[in-house]
Amino acid sequence: MRNIKARLIEEKIAKGFMQLSGIIITGSLFFIVGTILYKGLPYLSWEMISQTPQGGFYMGKEGGILNAILGSLYLASASTFLATLIGIPIVLYLNVYVKKGSLLARSAKLLFDVLFGIPSIVYGAIAFSLMVYLGIRASLLGGIITITLLTIPIIVRTLDELIDTIPTDLRHVTSSLGATRWETAKVMLKYIKPGLFTAILLAFGRAIGDVAGVLLTTGFSDNLPKYIDEPTATLPLAIFFQLSSPIPEVQGRAYASALLLTFLILVIVLCSHILASKQKKHKI
Amino acid sequence: MISRLAKDKIAKNSSALLLGLSSLLILLVFLGLLWKAQPVLQEYSLGQLLSESVWAPLKGKFGFLPFIMGTLWVTALSLLLAVPLCIAASVYLVEYASDRLRNMVLPLVNVLAAIPPVLYGVWGVLFVVPLLGTYVAPVFGISSSGYSVFAGGIVLAVMIFPIMVSIMVEVLQTIPYELRAVSLSLGATRWETIKHVILKKAKPGLLAAVVLAISRAFGETIAVLMVCGNIPHLPKSIFDAGYPIPALIANNFGEMMSIPLYDSALMFAALLLFLIIFGFNLISRLILNRLEGQHS
Questions:
Q1: Which chain B residues are Cβ-neighbours of A185 within 8 angstroms?
Q2: Could you confirm whether the keyword Phosphoprotein appears in this record (chain A) (predicted)?
Q3: Hey, which of A16, A164, B63, B104 has its CA 20 to 30 A from B144?
Q4: Where are the domains of chain A?
């Protein structure tokens, strides 16, 4: 047996490394947000949020990115809404109608786990080819469909975890009172209400931040989004395009746009965190 | 009025239908990719496509090796950086940290997971690339623009922090308390307990977390595209530019559709990505599900 002192020193070194790793990982968050804040804040202006790109915008002249902000909000809201509409019945089916732990339930859950891991560029590529095949051009609609596919697994997975936290008593009680399974499902939905909104917000955050999926399917436009079958600008894509410009003014606006997106995401995360802690206290 | 039972039946059937349709989705994606990749697969053999290193679509040369190597370099670098850090941090959070610290750090890690890829890319361009180009590369006597596989590796490492930490913490928390108690009572220090007992026991779970992180790293597109330089050659050092597969698809899709076989070749790239990621995801999820089953 080695000397206790040497063993304790080894413990100290290991612990020090672990603390350092923890600091690096949490620190990276502040570092990323800090870098974007530092670079973007000087360029942020009311004009940026309230106007569409004017003539010469990409040469550094006036205008803003209202088109991209609105486009992203439309796209993310519509696809989150659709994904929720499709996702909730799927989760309820898997948890109410199918026996828990049955082969169907298990393989379906595994499937959604795997779907969750498929990168958005693959969805984008397949949606793009489908659109070419059908003769649809890049449009808001194409983006909504792609992003909906991307968000369904998120909704299903998060809700499934939530439903697992429902006490089985609740189900037994509702059934014993003579409720049909559909009515039981409705009671369950009520129980997870705050958590449901958390899941929706998370999906919204994912939808609004995705680039690879919309790059091929949604296109880009300097006009405010008016019709669903027209190319539409999105915020992440606006950041991406402006950043690749060699003109410093335009790059600066990319930083400011990035700051806007960061702000949006942080608000979403904060709201979902508040709702999640509400879920812990939530009782019917 | 519809009877309650009828309502129940309608709900059941319509939700089953939705489930069926969305399960079909994965099959449709696979078949669609395969179908679109068919032309290039008929022209060249699989081995040719994967091992040729010349990418010149205009001359009809589709060698995917530079892109495969680009992806492998970036992924390997990110794992090299992220895996030790994540294991260490997760062990610390589970074994040493107070509840208060853990409840403070884990939500922050979740925030990191919520940050969109494009913002990681912006951070990479603003910070990582200049840092590597002006400070790090000259130290090694190499001139580099900073847009390199190394930059991609760093950005990806930060991007896979959250997925690894959250899964690793969950895995470590499933280890029974008795194992620790026994080891400690035998006179082992806490670090020795971690080294010889906890990490050994947690190995399959930690491995699953790493495999999941690999599949995330493989598919990451925009952030990597922004910092990697995107030159289709075989990277020779970590300060060399690289061109990962997802970046290839994102950069070229939709353009130059008139070049024969070009879009088919890109679809083949997407198929490759899909198959690798599907396989990796499946493996790690199966491991994780089994572990969960063991402990509950």
A1: 11
A2: no
A3: B63
A4: 4-43, 48-281
Nearest 10 degrees: CA dihedral of B22, B23, B24, B30?
Answer: 110
Look at residue B166 in the predicted model and tell me its pLDDT. 92
CB contact under 8 A, A14 and B254: no
Residues A163-185 have a mean pLDDT of 85
As a whole number, mean pLDDT of residues B60-78 equals 89
In this prediction, the answer to ipTM > 0.95 reads: no
Question: How far B99 CA lies from chain A's nearest CA (Å)?
Answer: 15
The two structure tokens encoding residue A53: 């790109």
* Three-state SS at B191: helix
Among B248, B133, B225, B67, smallest CA distance to A244 is for B225
DSSP B61: E
Element (H, E) at B88: helix B65-91
Q: Which two tokens stand for residue A227?
A: 């019709």
Distance from CA of A183 to the nearest CA of B (A): 8
Rounded CA-CA distance A53/A39 in Å is 21
pLDDT in tens, A266-278: 999 999 888 888 8
Residue A23 has pLDDT above 70, yes or no: yes
| Nearest-CB residue to B23 (from A111, A118, A240) | A111
pLDDT digit string, tens, across residues B92-145: 999 999 999 998 999 899 899 999 999 999 999 999 998 888 888 888 877 778
Closest chain B C-alpha to A1 CA, distance in angstroms: 11
Residue whose structure tokens are 């990621």: B277
Per-residue pLDDT band at A180 (split at 50, 70, 90): confident
Sequence-distant (≥ 6) Cβ neighbours of residue B103 within 8 angstroms: none
Token match 């990719």: residue? B33
Residue of A3, A11, A18 to mutate, interface with B, max B Cβ within 10 Å: A18
Give the residue carrying structure tokens 């190319």. A231
- Two tokens, residue B269: 């790239």
Cβ(B157)–Cβ(B210) below 8 Å: no
pLDDT at B153: 94
Helix (H, G, I), strand (E, B) or coil at B227: helix
Q: DSSP assignment, residue A225?
A: P
Q: What residue ranges define each of the domains in chain B, with the CATH number in brackets?
A: 66-247+256-295 (1.10.3720.10)
Average pLDDT, chain A: 86
A27 touches chain B (CB under 8 A): no
Residue B101: closest CA among A17, A23, A267:
A23
Compute the C-alpha angle A117/A119/A123, nearest 5°.
Answer: 115
In B169-202, which positions are buried (b, 16+ CB within 10 angstroms) versus exposed (e)? bbbbeebeeeebeebeeeebbbbbbbbebbeebb
Q: CATH assignment of A48-281?
A: 1.10.3720.10
Please tell me the predicted confidence (pLDDT) of residue B251. Answer: 82
Do A88 and A155 touch, CB atoms closer than 8 A? yes
> What distance in Å separates the CA atoms of residue B276 and residue B279, rounded to the nearest whole number?
5
